[in-house]
Amino acid sequence: MPGSQKFRLQVRSDLRALDQVLSWFDQFDESPIPNTTWMECKTALAEGMTNAIRHAHKDRSSDSPVEIELTLFPELLEIRIWDCGPGFDIDGWLADEQPPLDNEDLEHGRGLLMMQKLVDRLSYDRTADRRNCLLMVKHFPPQ
């Protein structure tokens, strides 16, 4: 798409890689993007990355790759996170309005709800190469 810039990073499935991912993301913090928008996206990225490692890759080697892609447009940004896990129905989970059953369930899924509130579009789909792609889209006003 005209006016877009795309950047990619691949890291190991290890929570210690989160600092590397966030530092990588920060290098693209550009003045046309409002600071609040940037921080919301950075928070959503951290949560998405953590979920990929803790949940999608919980039974996989730490050598399993997690790939992150950032696409910057003049009025929006897209973050994609690919994992190699079994996948799940994010739309069904987010639509389920069942109350948590116990304290453990209170912790489970709060990150998804937070990501949903921080971004304008959230999806998680299986790709043709048998990976999963978490897509987060955030719009911001033109500067």
Number of helices: 5
The major sheet is characterized as: 5 strands, antiparallel
Number of domains: 1
* Low-confidence sequence ranges: 101-106
Per DSSP E runs of 2 or more residues, the count of β-strands stands at: 5
Order the strands across the largest sheet as they lie in space.
1-2-3-5-4
Give the CATH architecture.
2-Layer Sandwich
- Rg is 15 Å
CATH level 1 name? Alpha Beta
Please provide the ordered H/E string of secondary-structure elements.
Answer: EHHEEHHHEE
Summarize the structure.
By secondary structure, the protein is an alpha+beta fold. It has five helices and five strands. The chain has one domain: Heat Shock Protein 90 (2-Layer Sandwich).
Helix-strand layout with pairing:
Blueprint: E1 5-12, H1 18-26, H2 35-56, E2 65-72, E3 76-83, H3 90-95, H4 103-107, H5 110-118, E4 121-126, E5 132-139
Antiparallel strand pairs: 1-2, 2-3, 3-5, 4-5
Structural features, described:
With 143 residues, the protein is of the alpha+beta class. The protein has one domain (5-139): Heat Shock Protein 90 (2-Layer Sandwich). Helix content is 36%, strand content 27%. The chain contains 5 helices and 5 strands; from the N terminus they run βααββαααββ. It has a 5-stranded antiparallel β-sheet with strand order 1-2-3-5-4, covered by helices on one side. A hairpin with a 5-residue loop joins strand 4 and strand 5. Helix 1 (18-26) runs antiparallel to helix 2 (35-56) and helix 2 runs antiparallel to helix 5 (110-118). The longest helix has 22 residues, at 35-56. It is globular and about 45 Å long. It starts with a strand and ends with a strand. 20% of the residues are buried.
